[in-house]
Amino acid sequence: MLNFDRDRFLAIQSGALALAGPIHAAIGAALAGGAKNIFFLGTGGAAILMQPAALMLQRRSGFPAFMEIAAELVASGHHALGRDSIVVIPSLSGTTKESVATLDYCRERGATVIALVGHSDTPLGLKADHAFVNFAEDDTSSESFYLQSLLVALSVMAHRSEFPGYDGTVAELATLPQHLLAAKRAFEPEAERLAEAFRTEPYHIITAAGGSWAEAWYYGMCILEEMQWIRTRPVHAADFFHGTLELVEKGVSVIVFKGEDAYRPLTDRVEKFVRDFTDKVTVLDTARFAMPGVSAETRALVSPVVLATILERLSAHLEVKRNHPLTTRRYYKKVSY
Amino acid sequence: MLNFDRDRFLAIQSGALALAGPIHAAIGAALAGGAKNIFFLGTGGAAILMQPAALMLQRRSGFPAFMEIAAELVASGHHALGRDSIVVIPSLSGTTKESVATLDYCRERGATVIALVGHSDTPLGLKADHAFVNFAEDDTSSESFYLQSLLVALSVMAHRSEFPGYDGTVAELATLPQHLLAAKRAFEPEAERLAEAFRTEPYHIITAAGGSWAEAWYYGMCILEEMQWIRTRPVHAADFFHGTLELVEKGVSVIVFKGEDAYRPLTDRVEKFVRDFTDKVTVLDTARFAMPGVSAETRALVSPVVLATILERLSAHLEVKRNHPLTTRRYYKKVSY
């Protein structure tokens, strides 16, 4: 595979999953200590990557879960945030300005802060009550944060007897790095072909639903916009028919991400529509990738992870075909703002 | 003012605010009947317009408030939805397919459904437990839905003694239609100038924060995309610096909506940045509009309403300058999907 380090990839994703035990212990301690709710408070892409886990908790668990825009929470406060709150803050660098401000704000209010970081010797790593460290870089952090936040959500539900299959699910997840690697390999030729097709494409509508919506939002904003300077319109499949559809005509690129959770029919509907009205439809469907031994329920949970891992292959080819390194920025870390 | 019916506008917004009493009574009855949570379940634009009210409840009230994508909730269920739930469903037509499915789903589970509709003799109007009817059309529905959902949220908090100034706020809101009319008048020349500047502009990044974020999302998707077929990138001011900023360069249009709530500093930061890197910056700031007798707290609550009302003027000029009627669609009500 192009510009890919197999061992590094496996180590990073296995590293994320090896946190299952420590995360389960930390959540258990917080719940035993009287925690009454949980906040997922990320910034930018890291926030988006926790969305599937937060959504699952909100919809399936009786434990109040809040997913807030961290900078807004710090600006206005939140009635439920306090001594009985668990706060999860992810930041690969461990230094993201807004995330450090969020940590300080939550600690002052007595919350138990769990930081998910790439380096321990950072403001977030040092000041959190529990810092879970898994080194990753831009090309491997999506899967890692999806998995770590999923482990947090599953642990909350398991401790509350809301997810009886916890042990089995964690065991299945432990096999995921190899399945992700196989998915990358299977997708590699298509990644190159797509990168060629997208080489001069100036604009993409990207849509998805359920857990996979996070990946549409993330890939549009944090990869295509930030790292390739390509215009995107991430739009939820449920919103698509209430405005954005009118932009679709011959020549307009629409990318549909399809996962395997209960929300898949929402993306079927978009796919059916756009195939009639534009010649540039790209469907990325996690169902194509065999993952022997992984149950349908777990496949649904990890659909955004599978999408992230195959899309990393697309990015790897895009930067070469477009002669635009993924690390090139106009502004980030170049000007202050 | 261009293509504007003053009396019709005032009647529609006053009609929304005249629902304060009936809404307060219905919420009071539901709470007295043991309601334990509230769901805001809209579809497309109508969902977005309830977001400021839902966010306020989530952050300021101890009453659990959920804002869910209706089509997803129907697909997967939600642990908290049941006999003790109040469900608010807005639909101007009263016939939106997904909204009718949502109503049926929630009624089957025993929830108390409040429908906000433009016509009583519609599926939503007829099947809801409480149907609040206020006729409006596309050019007047934004303010109307913002206000009705705000009245719902304020009522919940008032009944729970979480908003002691309820009566005063409702009295201030009753004066709002005249203030909105004055804001439209004051903005009219700028609306024409902006429409001329935007006439051939193919793409806008639109950003905002707090309650006003809803209007950035709504105006991009439901007006510029749906009614003018102009590409937009609605992006929250907090997300802006985590990807989308890299698209900004000379010639790229960035529109910043500034409201008066606690989240205004997030948009100050974007404004400061973009002024350095593109020559096409449009700032629409609600603080410019005098509203004598309206307190700072109420001004913060109605900032998205003020934005919606001045933006309607922009739309009125855009359709003329661009020779593209706001009612023209490629697909909506023309093909089935």
TrEMBL record, chains A, B:
The chain crosses the membrane at residues 38-57. The keyword Isomerase applies. One of its GO terms (biological process) is protein N-linked glycosylation. SUPFAM superfamilies: SIS domain. One of its GO terms (molecular function) is isomerase activity. It holds the Pfam family SIS. Residues 27-192 form the SIS domain. CDD domains: SIS_1. Keywords: Aminotransferase, Isomerase, Membrane, Transferase, Transmembrane, Transmembrane helix. This is Sugar isomerase. The lineage of its organism: Bacteria, Pseudomonadati, Pseudomonadota, Alphaproteobacteria, Hyphomicrobiales.
